[in-house]
Amino acid sequence: MAFLELKGVEKFYGPVHAIKGIDLAIEKGEFIVFVGPSGCGKSTLLRMIAGLETIDGGSLWLDGREITKLNSSKRDLAMVFQSYALYPHMSVADNMSFALRLANVDKKIIQDKVGRAAEILNLSKYLDRTPKELSGGQRQRVAIGRAIVRAPKCFLFDEPLSNLDAALRGQTRVEITKLHRELGATTVYVTHDQVEAMTMADRVVVLRDGAIEQVGTPLELYDHPANTFVAQFIGQPQMNVVDTKKLPASFGIGGPADGFIGVRPEHVTVKRSGEGALPAKVEVVESLGLDTIIYANVGDVQLIARQNTRTALKAGDAVALEIAPTAIHQFDRQGRALAA
Amino acid sequence: MNHIALAVRTVAAWLVTLLIVFPLIWLVLTAFKTELQAIAVPPELFFSPTLENFHEVQVRSDYLLYAKNSVVTSVLSTIIGLAIAAPAAYSMAFFRTKKTKDLLMWMLSTKMMPAVGALVPVYVMAQTAGLLDSLTGLTVVFTLSNLPIMVWMLYSGFKDIPPDILEAARMDGANVWSEFVHVIRPLATGTLASTGLLCLVLSWNEAFWSLNLSSANAGTLATLIASYSSPEGLFWAKLSCASLMAIAPIVVLGWFSQKQLVQGLTFGAVK
Fold first, then answer.
1. Rounded to two decimals, what is the model's pTM?
2. Which pLDDT score is estimated for A252?
3. pLDDT confidence tier of residue A212, bands split at 50, 70 and 90
4. A174, A215, B176, B179: which sits with the fewest CB atoms below 10 Å from its CB?
């Protein structure tokens, strides 16, 4: 049996079926990321695991014990909130030690554990401060510290980086990943940012409308998306997905007679006009330094190409696109992937 | 122009203040007059003060008994009121349903009904329960009549506490009690204090129920004051003296706690 297991977990808000029977097995020490667009139920699902939302159907198991109806306080899980949710009236040290103090742990042990966590998180200097005297990044670290001091069975993170600026977000992402490697703790992490999902996860769970679309390692999802939703959600810029009925005759690329084909932007090569199979017109060029993103129209169909060389192309230029047939993903009319 | 506006505003403010405080000043002055001086026309502004009335009030009506009754009923009704209102406000602030607002409005609406409308049933109930002219009876009635406003005030204060913090406490292993003691109480000290103070003041000043439900045994200072307006006539100096002695403790308390009170009453209005 898996370490943390969700069996047919469901949630209703009145007539709305918010979580539609989720089955998921998480192994000990795994870093699992729930990702999906807003409103897909990822935070709700995390809160259900935490015990902050009731589970209306199915069951939840942690380390061989059923915890479906157990109070949050008894689940032995720690959570890092999006808003950090630090206790504003307590010092950093008191924030971090609150759980241990509630559990009547020996003062000496508390001091040791808080000291060690503070050292790992670079907070030793700030232990006497209150949260409002700290920067956003420091508060975030206190929230993480509060979780690790307890050494819980499982860590839950609810979009912990979304309140940080871009630079700090990248840095904290790396820190959390490092921390996970050092502690080896089972972690469930919620984000809407697919970059976080791809870079941090052992396995990614893509959710939509309260149901799982696909579970897999980041590269599995990237290389073998189960459907057009996952294909377009994972990867930046998103995969080109084209209705085969709209393909111009000149497209010349095999695909299902009735369905979609998908191709990643890096597999679309922009060539000089006349050199490639698909004559196209450049619409927009985005130069990112390392990469160049080119939006080009083949008839009515817009395709995105990504290349790691710079270009002198500009909007309106005539070009030709080439797509390697082996790089094409095929989907049926419902958007499900077809075996290649 | 600004200076003139400021001056006008200042004068106006002083006038309004004087208008409000004038009866109180008059009361204080009268308390130190003899009965003859008290009814003199034109009123005497300069006179040699006497403490005779204070002595008279204590001898004639045992001020200390009434004062004790006031302290007991107001303090007990405040404590019991907080003990009931805090959990009610907690559940309404943190476990809101669609009906929470309606429930709060309904509770508050009971304060809009004139107390006299409930006099007969309350009197009969108190009589049946043997609680007429008893401190228990008064305490119960004071508590119940203050509950709506207490729940409302605590609710307004509690709902400013981010629910995330309570959820974090729950994840940290806190049960409802430790959540309240370690998180809500320190974060809502101002609200709790001002609610308690207001309830204390309201109970202390409560006259309607004390006059109707108590007399010699459980009478509060409000009944003491009323006893000086009797069929034998009005004794202005003694009446003023009794009133001064009745309001003095709560005015002093109010003076020292005005910051808390104002903060509590404007909670949520100013961030």
1. 0.82
2. 63
3. very high
4. A174
Specify the DSSP element, H or E, that contains A263.
strand A259-263
B232 part of contact set with chain A, CB < 8 Å = no
| Chain B contact probe: residue of A82, A90, A98 with most B CBs at under 10 A | A98
| B164 vs A contacts (CB less than 8 Å) | 81, 83, 85
Rounded to an integer, the average pLDDT of B192-212 is: 90
Which residues from B are below 8 Å from A99, CB to CB?
172-173
Q: Hey, is A196 helix, strand or coil?
A: helix
User: Could you tell me the two tokens for B233?
Assistant: 């006539």
Taking CA B153 as the corner, what is the angle to CA B149 and CA B157, rounded to the nearest 5 degrees?
A: 170
Query: Please, what CATH class does the domain formed by A240-332 belong to?
Result: mainly beta
* A98/B172 CB distance under 8 A: yes
Share of chain B above pLDDT 70, in %: 95
Residues of A with CB under 8 A from a CB of B: 50-52, 71-74, 77-79, 81, 83, 85-89, 98-99, 102-103, 146, 150
pLDDT at B56 over 80: yes
pLDDT tens column, B87-96 = 999 999 999 8
Paired sense of beta strands A292-298 and A301-307, if any = antiparallel
State both tokens at B80: 């019991």
DSSP A227: B
**Spatial contact of A193 and A160, defined as CB atoms under 8 Å apart:** no
Q: What is the ipTM of this complex?
A: 0.85
Structure confidence by residue, pLDDT tens digits, A217-246: 999 999 999 999 999 999 989 999 998 887
Q: Which CATH code for domain A4-229?
A: 3.40.50.300
- Across chain A, mean pLDDT equals 91
**Does any CB of chain A come closer than 8 Å to the CB of residue B25?**
no
Token pair 């007990």 is found at B76
What ranges in A150-212 are assigned the alpha helix state H?
Answer: 166-183, 194-200
Which residue from B minimizes the CA distance to A88? B187
Q: Is B170 on the interface with A (CB under 8 A)?
A: yes
What are the boundaries of each domain within chain A?
A: 4-229, 240-332
* Model confidence band, residue A187 (pLDDT cutoffs 50, 70, 90): very high
Query: What does the angle CA B195 – CA B197 – CA B201 come to, to the nearest 5 degrees?
Result: 120
Question: In sequence order, what DSSP letters do the residues of A266-333 get, joined into one string?
Answer: GGEEEEETTTSSEEEEEEEEEE-SS-EEEEEEETTEEEEEEESS-----TT-EEEEEE-GGG-EEEET
Question: Looking at residue A279, what is its pLDDT?
Answer: 87
Domains parsed from chain B with CATH numbers: 54-265 (1.10.3720.10)
Q: In DSSP terms, which residues pair with A62 in a beta bridge?
A: A4, A65
Look at B168 and A87 and tell me if their CB atoms are within 8 Å: yes
User: And the tokens for A193?
Assistant: 């940012």
List of residues 6+ apart from A303 with CB closer than 8 A? A240, A242, A263, A268, A280, A295, A296, A297, A321
Over 60: is that where the pLDDT of B127 sits? yes
